[in-house]
Amino acid sequence: MREPNRTSPSALGLTELNEEVEKSNQRIEAIKADYRRIMKWSEMFDGSDMDVKKMIAGYIIKRVDVYSDYRLHIEFNMSFAQFELGLETEVEYAAQDIVS
Prior knowledge:
two-stranded antiparallel sheet, 11% strand
């Protein structure tokens, strides 16, 4: 006799796979959105005149050390999370983190 409320192992596996596919699709969409945002920033920067580019670079970059063999050490005024979220200060970033 078959029990009507039991789910077969293959149906459970299929459900898990479908959930995994959905999570992957969500991650892909998030990556695409990040890419579009970065490309928009890049296009804005490329379309700006040299004075604006210098101002942007001066705001983002705190210090650049150049070593022999053309090695560079670049210190930024912001964390990657700030850059990614487009926030200007650590306080704003911390507030965003709390709200999320």
